[in-house]
Write a structure and sequence with these properties.
Elements: H1 10-19, H2 37-47, H3 49-52, H4 59-78, H5 83-110, H6 114-139, H7 143-152, H8 157-160, H9 174-189, H10 192-207, H11 212-232, H12 238-257, H13 259-267, H14 273-291, H15 293-298, H16 307-311, H17 313-317, H18 346-354, H19 356-372, H20 378-388, H21 398-409
Length: 418
């Protein structure tokens, strides 16, 4: 008898892990967050679904999903239904959930994360090398290298204005990787090479002037972690003094090196074009909820997060104090044919699509995960990830699912000092 051919499904998982930093390749299916790694994680999930399903203990989650879909049928009748936007939301949400069970299942099978860390360190090292090449090309105006990046990358417009974006879709995604992927893995494994990689990215982003967000996020993460360590261990209270001394010095460095940061601190969120366009979506959505409180409770339907933006546009626009209107002017009137469903804030997107009741239920589930976890760093990591998603809204991004997986497996996770 012929032996049946066995597929080592781990190869899909390892390729997906390697591609985590390389989210800006020209063949990525979307330009908003141009990535293919979640698709490979999804393939790994599907190939192992019979085994993974045994790990599923989410009766309450399925109840919430059924309620959410019932509300969405109601909302589609009263608002609008777009096959593309609804499909996009279902796919990204589905990929995110599959990532969670993929991370948990992989650990259940392999018990250690050493191989994952090695693959990620190589991948992020290549990303750093790409950033250095980009900086050299920008600094010395090497056009053929810049043109090569224009061919290879989905979005390379930042290079045209002298901003290094490494292998990421845009510079503002750098901190999503540093503090949403690498930092949780560092605290899960205590591998010092992961910490060194984070520091390298921060230093190069600062030297290359890649953007204000990674610098601001770094400051906030440092404050959260030092305060946590000081409170968690009385012997570390002295580090609070370091925070008090370092913050003014850090802010001085930001002011002297980055005009955007100085402008934001001096003149507010609407002084910066990028931050203004993001904040506008939040503000206009809130005004939209006020106009239709019933939709605030039930949501507007899957993929319909731009409807409240349009409904609250006029009132929010009165507060808009920036000349950069390109990104927001299209929301003035809701376009049922538009494929745009970006809120640029996960919490606003969830409320807009599912309603405040489902959002409150999800917060309760996060609290239960937090309460039941024995992971020593669960509080600061949840705070950091919660902060990161204030300016990011993809359901499929790794951070939230990775942190939940770490919190779930910590009873078995062998933390090794590297």
């Amino acid at each position: 008898m012929k032996k049946s051919l066995k597929i080592n499904t781990n190869i899909f998982f390892y390729i997906a892990v390697f591609l985590v930093p390389f989210e800006n390749l020209f063949f990525a299916p979307t330009a908003g967050w141009a990535t293919i790694a979640p698709i490979l994680f999804g393939i790994y999930f599907i190939l192992n679904i019979n085994k993974i399903i045994k790990l599923v203990k989410i009766k309450n989650i399925w109840i919430a999903i059924l309620i959410a879909f019932a509300l969405n049928i109601y909302n589609f009748i009263l608002t609008d239904f777009s096959v593309y936007r609804t499909g996009n939301t279902l796919i990204t949400l589905g990929l995110g959930v599959m990532e969670y069970y993929t991370f948990v299942y992989y650990y259940e099978r392999n018990k250690l994360l050493d191989k994952v860390i090695k693959i990620l360190l190589v991948a992020y090292a290549i990303s750093i090398a790409i950033g250095i090449v980009q900086w050299i090309a920008i600094k010395f105006n090497i056009s053929f290298i810049i043109n090569l990046f224009h061919i290879l990358l989905k979005r390379s417009n930042y290079l045209n204005v002298g901003r290094v974006q490494f292998s990421f879709t845009e510079p503002s995604f750098i901190s999503m990787h540093l503090y949403g992927v690498l930092l949780p893995l560092y605290y899960a494994t205590k591998n010092k090479k992961v910490l060194i990689t984070i520091v390298m990215f921060v230093l190069l982003s600062f030297l290359f002037n890649s953007g204000v967000r990674v610098i601001l996020d770094t400051l906030i993460v440092i404050i959260i972690m030092i305060i946590y360590h000081a409170i968690a261990n009385k012997r570390n209270r002295k580090y609070l003094l370091i925070v008090i001394l370092l913050i003014p010095l850090f802010i001085f460095m930001l002011f002297s090196n980055n005009n955007r940061f100085e402008n934001i601190v001096t003149n507010g969120v609407y002084a910066d074009a990028s931050l203004a366009s993001r904040f506008f979506r939040i503000e206009s959505s809130i005004y939209g909820y006020a106009k239709k409180p019933i939709n605030f409770i039930t949501g507007y339907g899957l993929g319909n997060s731009t409807i409240p933006i349009a409904e609250g546009f006029d009132k929010a626009y009165l507060n808009y104090k920036n000349e950069y209107t390109y990104e927001i002017i299209g929301y003035q009137t809701y376009n049922e044919h538009s494929n745009d469903n970006a809120s640029f804030c996960l919490y606003i997107r969830i409320i807009s699509e599912f309603g405040i009741l489902i959002f409150a239920f999800l917060i309760y589930q996060v609290y239960k995960i937090y309460k039941n976890s024995t992971f020593a760093y669960k509080l600061p990591l949840l705070l950091i990830v919660g902060y990161l998603y204030l300016q990011f809204d993809s359901y499929a991004f790794y951070s939230i699912w990775l942190v939940f997986a770490i919190l779930n497996i910590t009873k078995k996770l062998e933390v090794k000092e590297k």
